[in-house]
Amino acid sequence: MAGLEAQMSSGSNPDVSLLYDINGLTDDTPGWFDRVMEFVGEYGILLGLVLVVLWCWWGARKRETLDDAASSVAAVVWAPLAAAVAVLVNVPIRSFVERPRPFKDHDGLTVLVTGKNDFSFVSDHATMAMALGAAVFVANRKLGFVGLGLAVLEGFCRVFMGVHYPTDVIGGFALGTAVALLLSPLASALLTPVARAIGRTGKLSRLVWSPTAAASASGAVGLPGARESAEPAEERDLAA
User: Fold this and answer.
1) What total number of domains does the chain contain?
2) Distance from CA of residue 112 to its chain's centroid?
3) Per-residue pLDDT tens over the stretch 166-215
4) Domain boundaries, position 78
5) How wide is the angle at C-alpha 235 spanned by C-alphas 233 and 237, nearest 5°?
6) Which of 13, 150, 182, 197 is most deeply buried (CB count within 10 A of its CB)?
7) What is the pTM of this model?
């Protein structure tokens, strides 16, 4: 009842109304579900996105040539870097806007996570999640849809948990996407030569390129020249 009264007092503000609608779902959920959502929204989805990035990296190594593998791995490496850059960009935004957490200004909310005393806009979790999802989408379309889906779920969880307004999440989505996409060409130009250089080394080369896996993939579809493209880079250099 307190939540309903608070929602009515919010007037025509759609941001606050949607906050109460989503957070109000906790009134009908069991305690164990709220605890699961607390873990998923705070840690679980970000962990899932890290696993998606690792999965994407594992596949990027299996390109037919070192050049293709280096550019693909560079795109994957940009994903966590994009998330870090986006969060750094958010630091001055939060300090400038200084928006309090919703439960500090509105009564009747069910808050599933305690200790959130910093500012609310923009959501760090939504920013990181969408930056990871958008960057993975650039590297791998199929896995990118998985990443974007997880990012949207992260945004829903933050509102469901009562720690963010919907506009906090939307702002995080916009910031994460902007950083991941706008800086992607620059990141590729800087990271691809580094990845190519690592691919030509001895022990660390498999971080960038897996010739055995590339040869197996090429042989499975009967592509000509599979053996030449799968030669270790150092052997090709010696032959030259």
Assistant:
1) 1
2) 23
3) 999 999 999 999 999 999 999 999 999 999 999 888 788 888 888 765 55
4) 21-27+34-103+121-239
5) 70
6) 150
7) 0.82
